[in-house]
């Protein structure tokens, strides 16, 4: 799809245009090769985009729902027909193994089909009225211009889960993808909507760094910001949105517990642990970052997890068949290494991995970890499984809840009732019994608590709350007088 347009070095804002902010290299993390250049937005580009979006949005809001739904369905079909190109960029620019790329495109498709169903659902309800002869209606209206800021780890789904429902419900969108995945999470999405004939001005895609994100967040013409990224940046976005009185959705970091109870099947539990900790090099908000194990099964769990880690091949996912690709960049690598090194210095032992070459970090299992060590306290965002051993179920609950984050948890147990009772004691936005932590359904309420987010939820019906606002409308056949 990209070959059909002149996208190189450009942003998508009223067509493919040069950015005032210049250009950015698109780098393959596995090799360091520069694959292309895209435009880099600055505050002026953001301002231009918001103004165009605001001008285009009212007519889109008036467009009949079935037409908006048809547009989203065309986008989904184009993605189905061109998915190889989308997966290619996820692999080369994002460092994904091909199955992760295919999984992500499947998630995007599911998101699009759900979004396509929104415009033809009821937009409000008739209310009772306190005055005879008056009709009273609550109706949903679009917000206007929605700003979407997305990260690099699952760049297509984390952009599309906001872009598609926001557009479906009559908004215009300005999307700022992360510079590490500007093509996978931005350019390709722009191209899809362009090829599907979205009317001009309704979607702008501008890659850029913190200044572009801050300009979007501060812009008075933006009604709402949908942000997915780190907790540190989420706090800044939340502050700016508060100052400018914008609606803000914050989907932030996670430090998720995978709890292994003493009646778990350890063959299955260690497989869940390896998948949860190492998929996409642990660079997922839902990664199993804290493995909490009851003492009677701890040695066997650690042995099995370490054996699984040791046999997972790491390397260039475009040129070889590997289980783990590279970390996204040197900054990410040095943070993972800092957390592992300082945790080992504090007394933890390395049972697998703990080493790296270039951006390739080996899947790592740390034993003898306590709840005060950095690998337990911090979100690592790398392929590291720190294991903490506890002696009672109460201690396991306390350890699982001992985090400022609250995105997801998972429990492995031989008894679903024991799992259900354990789950009820956790304060996460999501919890899975006899599973691992990485799960997504486009129609389930996705979101976290505490430092993981501000209570916002993604997922089909929840999009109504995120991307529309209520208007109370009353109607009388005839106006009437008042005592004054
Ligand atoms: P990040 O916060 O560094 O960047 C996210 C986005 O914010 C990028 O587009 C970036 O350019 C932009 N940005 C940076 N500074 C900004 C500013 N001052 N104002 C506005 N925007 C700004 O995060 P990251 O490193 O790209 O992503 C990893 C983080 O995202 C992890 O913490 C991960 O857990 C989290 N995450 C959360 C979810 C979720 O759904 N809860 C999903 C995926 C990732």
From TrEMBL:
Keywords attached to this entry: NAD, Oxidoreductase
PROSITE patterns registered for this protein in UniProt: ALDEHYDE_DEHYDR_GLU
GO MF: oxidoreductase activity, acting on the aldehyde or oxo group of donors, NAD or NADP as acceptor
Domain Aldehyde dehydrogenase: 16-473
Top-level division of the source organism's lineage: Bacteria
Pfam families noted in UniProt: Aldedh
Record: active site: 251
Family, similarity comment: Belongs to the aldehyde dehydrogenase family.
Protein name: Benzaldehyde dehydrogenase
Organism placement in taxonomy: Bacteria, Bacillati, Actinomycetota, Actinomycetes, Pseudonocardiales
């Amino acid at each position: 799809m990209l070959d059909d347009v002149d996208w190189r070095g450009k942003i998508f804002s009223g067509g493919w245009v040069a950015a005032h902010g210049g250009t950015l290299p698109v780098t393959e993390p596995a090799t360091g090769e520069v694959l292309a250049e895209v435009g880099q937005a600055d505050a002026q580009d953001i301002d231009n985009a918001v103004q165009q979006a605001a001008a285009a949005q009212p007519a889109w809001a008036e467009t009949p729902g079935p037409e908006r739904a048809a547009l989203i369905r065309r986008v989904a079909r184009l993605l189905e027909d061109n998915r190889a190109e989308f997966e290619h960029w996820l692999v080369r620019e994002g460092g994904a193994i091909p199955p992760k790329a295919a999984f992500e495109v499947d998630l995007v498709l599911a998101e699009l089909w759900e979004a396509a169903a929104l415009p033809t659902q009821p937009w409000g309800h008739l209310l009772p009225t306190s005055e005879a002869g008056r009709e009273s209606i609550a109706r949903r209206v679009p917000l206007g211009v929605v700003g979407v800021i997305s990260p690099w780890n699952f760049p297509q789904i984390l952009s599309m889960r906001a872009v598609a429902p926001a557009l479906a419900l009559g908004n215009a969108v300005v999307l700022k993808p992360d510079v590490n995945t500007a093509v996978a999470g931005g350019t390709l999405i722009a191209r899809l909507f362009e090829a599907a004939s979205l009317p001009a001005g309704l979607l702008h895609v501008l890659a850029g760094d913190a200044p572009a994100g801050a300009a979007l967040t501060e812009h008075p013409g933006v009604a709402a910001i949908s942000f997915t990224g780190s907790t540190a940046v989420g706090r800044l976005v939340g502050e700016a949105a508060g100052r400018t009185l914008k609606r803000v959705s914050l989907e932030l970091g996670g430090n998720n517990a995978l709890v292994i109870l003493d009646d778990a099947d350890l063959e299955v539990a260690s497989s869940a642990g390896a998948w949860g900790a190492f998929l996409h090099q642990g660079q997922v908000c839902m990664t199993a970052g804290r493995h909490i194990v009851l003492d009677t099964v701890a040695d066997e769990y650690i042995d099995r997890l370490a054996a699984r880690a040791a046999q997972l091949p790491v390397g260039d996912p475009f040129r070889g068949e590997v289980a783990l690709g590279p970390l996204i960049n040197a900054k990410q690598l040095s943070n993972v290494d800092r957390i592992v090194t300082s945790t080992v210095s504090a007394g933890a032992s390395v049972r697998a991995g703990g080493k790296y070459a270039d951006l390739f970090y080996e899947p790592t299992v740390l034993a003898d970890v306590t709840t005060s060590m950095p690998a337990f306290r911090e979100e690592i965002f790398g392929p590291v499984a720190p294991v903490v051993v506890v002696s009672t179920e109460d201690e396991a609950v306390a350890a699982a809840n001992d985090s400022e984050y609250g995105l997801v948890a998972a429990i492995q147990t031989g008894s679903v009732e024991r799992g259900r009772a354990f789950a009820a004691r956790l304060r996460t936005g999501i919890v899975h019994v006899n599973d691992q932590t990485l799960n997504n359904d486009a129609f389930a309420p996705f979101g976290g608590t505490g430092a993981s987010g501000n209570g916002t939820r993604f997922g089909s019906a929840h999009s109504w709350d995120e991307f529309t606002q209520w208007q109370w409308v009353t109607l009388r056949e005839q106006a009437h007088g008042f005592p004054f």
